[in-house]
């Protein structure tokens, strides 16, 4: 079963190095790829936080669930 941690976006979730995420933009694929505003923060299994728009949040969840289907 996939454990997925998602929070409402907040600039406090990010370090100064995460400029796109801190600025409130979707950081999935880089700003050149997605120009939507961030509404959520995804906490990756590594503990890294990344800002995401609703569309990319759904994509992330689908990928994680599909990956779990391939696990023994």
Give the overall silhouette: globular
Give a quick account of the main beta sheet: strands, pairing sense, barrel closure.
Answer: 3 strands, antiparallel
Question: What is the alpha-carbon Rg in Å?
Answer: 12 Å
What's the count of strands? 3
Q: What do you see in this structure?
A:
It is built from 2 helices and 3 strands, in the order βαββα. With 72 residues, it is α+β, with helices and mostly antiparallel strands. The protein has one domain. Strands 1-2-3 form a 3-stranded antiparallel beta sheet. The chain is globular.
Please write out the topology.
Layout lengths: L4 E4 L10 H4 L17 E4 L5 E4 L1 H16 L3
Antiparallel strand pairs: 1-2, 2-3
Observed structural traits:
72 residues, alpha+beta, three-stranded antiparallel beta sheet, 2 helices, 3 strands, globular
